[in-house]
């Protein structure tokens, strides 16, 4: 990146008013400050200031990854890492290994990191090291970082719904959060009974027709999992009063992405949409059955009969069907209890700084004895665009942005007031001096009034402002002021000591 830029030729302008139609406060500030623009198709373009801020965010994070010996790769999409790993990783001597991919252009600014390890012990050690390094880097960027079970978050901003336990400190995104499910009464398994249930395609209509609680039913949901070696139909079962968590399901089966199955895909395995259950279906390996652990413990649930307008009473897991995977795949109900200590879980808001999950992997490596083993693959994802929006919302005041120096597009905002020859000449000399010594300078050389220049400087939020004016030059000085400080805190710095004072202020 160039260390200097002139505002007169900057490919951007500030806006006097907040843009309409933008709900995120951080994005509104970035658009108004000339970091970004909204496009007619609903997308966003990041202009030079925004692109520099994104690049600086990425650089801080990359430095943290380099300290962990992470290695860069270029891939078209994240799930391709598994295919790449199979072609490269052959021996235990190569593990553990970290690989990352950084993207700053369209359609999204993001950073992906993958950890390949030999076993659970190595995986946990690597995971802890990554979390420590990324937490320190994110704090350096200006975030207050909290550790969640599936990532790192900054609490307070209303971006993500999380659940927290005040007793044991558990914290996680709602879609991943584990909870203590109420135990079912011990009841003897009753005989299966097929019942006619006309026009009962939903759990609610079924429960109403039979006069039972939705908690006495089993809900069937169908997805197609995108895997590195081809797609697979997934049949998921949760209790009727619960919602499925696609995030939990993806992690349970190691899928990169899920999409809803079509009716044709559902019928292809013998199931009937709206009246489906695993009972009686042929397990031919073409599809995978995943059952929520609450359903596996619940006796005598009503489920589909795989015949239109018919259901089965008294279905029992273990007796009537078994699954390829039993896991927690349900969203936490309202007023859930913590799975670790049984205390109430409290809803909180925050920003996802980093998300992590286990990713499926089908390759192998040779251990010291020459036997084939499957390495563990863990994926860490950082949305750089979301981070910049969050920083803009957090680091601001009534006048505009107040970005930390690690992320701000420039270190210093140099302002020349008026057209006086001495002012212009001195500003040009300072511009060259600071640039020569590695200080990043945004130079406002426009023919605008002092009010416009100062307002724009406040909007853009560069940490340090240097103002060259006739009055300051008469004292042999320039004015130096930190962004956000009062006018009374401005300092007159001798011309021959500007570089020294700027360096000290930036430290």
CATH class membership of the largest domain = Alpha Beta
Shape: elongated
Number of strands: 28
The value of Rg in angstroms is 29 Å
Treating each run of at least 4 consecutive H or I residues as one helix, how many helices? Answer: 13
Given helix and strand content, the structural type is alpha+beta
Query: What is the domain total for the residues?
Result: 3
CATH architecture of the largest domain: 2-Layer Sandwich
The CATH superfamily of the largest domain is known as Bira Bifunctional Protein, Domain 2
Characterize the biggest β-sheet: 8 strands, mixed
CATH fold naming of the largest domain: BirA Bifunctional Protein, domain 2
Report how far apart the termini are: 21 Å
Q: Could you characterize what this model shows?
A:
- It is a single chain.
- With 507 residues, the protein is α+β, with helices and mostly antiparallel strands.
- It has three domains: 4-158 and 348-393, 2-Layer Sandwich (BirA Bifunctional Protein, domain 2), CATH 3.30.930.10; 193-327, YbaK protein; 412-506, Rossmann fold, CATH 3.40.50.
- Helices cover 27% and strands 29% of the residues.
- It has 13 helices and 28 strands.
- The strands form seven sheets. Strands 4, 5, 6, 7, 8, 9, 18 and 21 form an eight-stranded mixed beta sheet that branches. Strands 1-25-24-26-27-28 form a six-stranded mixed beta sheet, sandwiched between helices. Strands 13-11-12-14-17 form a five-stranded mixed beta sheet.
- It is elongated.
- It starts with a strand and ends with a helix.
- The model has no long low-confidence stretch (mean pLDDT 93).
